[in-house]
């Protein structure tokens, strides 16, 4: 990774966490849908990042959010689960050795691939997050409804952010 890419990711981390903590912390639509666009940081980390470093970054990001949300490791667990799903999906769908692009963005990978990738990772993150937050199976229907609606809302916000900063790949 180049120093420019590292700097971009550090700035992206601060901006997305600032938006999540300051602007979106108390935003919830009828108690069912809550956007978590900070996961975009983990989704856009470069392909070549070592797995251990990805897990550490995901854990640190989640722990930072836990400190502000007063949730004892819920976001950290969800971010590590997202990192696991990300690693598995990328290892199946992308040959990292022969790939020119460094980041899995909408402009680099295309709408279909990025949509499937982001939905899968976001849903796994939200599933772990809301199941650990509720921590009981008595309200599983309500928890799954929150997970699904929040995942869709988060995905739409992430697509909006990606389209704002969309750079078409020159072929």
Task: Explain how this protein is built.
By secondary structure, the chain is mainly α. Helices cover 69% and strands 0% of the residues. The chain has helices at residues 3-23, 39-43, 51-69, 74-93, 106-109, 111-134, 140-164. The two termini are 23 Å apart.
Number of helices: 7
The chain-level mean pLDDT equals 88
Q: Largest sheet at a glance?
A: none
Strand content: under 5%
Order of helices and strands: HHHHHHH
What would the principal axes of the Cα set say about the shape?
globular
Question: How many DSSP E strands?
Answer: 0
Q: How many angstroms separate the termini?
A: 23 Å
As a whole number of angstroms, the C-alpha radius of gyration is 16 Å
Structural class: mainly alpha
Q: What portion of residues is helical? A: 55-70%
Low-confidence stretches: none
């Amino acid at each position: 990774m180049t120093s420019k890419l590292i700097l971009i990711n550090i700035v992206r981390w601060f901006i997305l966490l600032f938006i999540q903590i300051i602007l979106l912390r108390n935003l919830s639509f009828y108690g069912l849908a809550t956007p978590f666009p900070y996961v975009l940081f983990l989704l856009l980390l470069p392909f070549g990042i070592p797995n251990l470093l990805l897990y550490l970054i995901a854990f640190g990001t989640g722990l930072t959010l836990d400190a502000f949300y007063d949730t004892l490791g819920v976001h950290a667990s969800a971010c590590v689960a997202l990192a696991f799903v990300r690693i598995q999906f990328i290892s199946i769908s992308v040959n990292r050795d022969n790939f020119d692009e460094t980041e899995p963005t909408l402009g680099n990978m295309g709408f279909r691939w990025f949509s499937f990738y982001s939905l899968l990772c976001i849903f796994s993150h939200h599933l772990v997050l809301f199941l650990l937050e509720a921590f009981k199976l008595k309200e599983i229907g309500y928890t799954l409804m929150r997970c699904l609606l929040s995942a869709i809302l988060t995905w739409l916000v992430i697509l909006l952010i990606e389209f704002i900063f969309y750079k078409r790949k020159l072929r």
